[in-house]
Amino acid sequence: MRRSLYKGNTMGRAGVGVQALTRGGTGRPARQVPAVTRAVAILRLLGRSEESRGVNAIARALGLIPSTCLHILRVLVAEELVAFDPVTKRYRLGAGLVTMARSALSRNGFAEMAQPELDRLTRRHGVTTIGVQVIGLEHIVVVAIARSDQGLRLHVDLGSRFPALISASGRCVAAFGGYPGSTLDRRFRALRWDRPPSLGAWRAEVGATRANGYAVDEGNYIRGVTIIAAPVRGAREQLTHVVVVVGVSEQVQKIGVDTLALELRTIADRLSQQLGAR
Length: 278
Known about the structure:
Layout: E1 2-4, H1 34-48, E2 53-54, H2 55-62, H3 66-78, E3 82-85, E4 90-93, H4 95-106, H5 109-125, E5 128-135, E6 139-146, E7 153-155, E8 161-163, H6 167-176, H7 181-188, H8 199-212, E9 215-218, E10 225-233, E11 239-248, H9 249-255, H10 257-274
Parallel strand pairs: 1-7
Antiparallel strand pairs: 2-4, 3-4, 5-6, 5-11, 6-8, 9-10, 10-11
Helix pairs in contact: 1-3, 2-3, 5-10, 6-8
């Protein structure tokens, strides 16, 4: 069975400048630089697109003037962050960006710590395990993965991005991220699931996640697939990462949801200690 963890959930609105900029991680608004904001928006749009796009399609999607969009694209092509096909006149992400992303991921300290833990859990139970970095309420990014050769084959790679509040990992973000309930409710309503939980049920599951130290999604996000997640916290007890187990529900039931959840929580606690949590 081959399934995709990405289900077309919204990563942010299509328009330019959708994410709040902060200065030096302090949470204070940073001064926006329009050209940079537009360039980043173009890169994100191309990153979400399954096919290459022409300049007019890019400009229309982002609400840009086509001539402005073209000037930015030419700079991105010159810097090898975007590739241009002179035959089709379309643009896609360039090899330079891929190289930068791989370099960043290879130097990710959490990934180096988490990978052996994920490998052991995958070998022991035959499930796929994933480590993700939490990027606020916008999204999570896959930074480590151990693939199972049994049953479920997931279409997910290093660098894949998903909405922050989706599935079991999202319940961890909601439970331990320290965000206002009204903000979480608004974000929840924009998520897409195979079997969507009601808002009341989701709130209760977030509460259970806070009490248990792990979250379970039994077929809500992907029908027939069980996802278990546990939070990893850093030096100031802030949520920084989440470790995740993914398996066919029948397989997970045979192993035992509680068995996997407790093992995953233990791994998350060890990683938290390594990151400086008390």
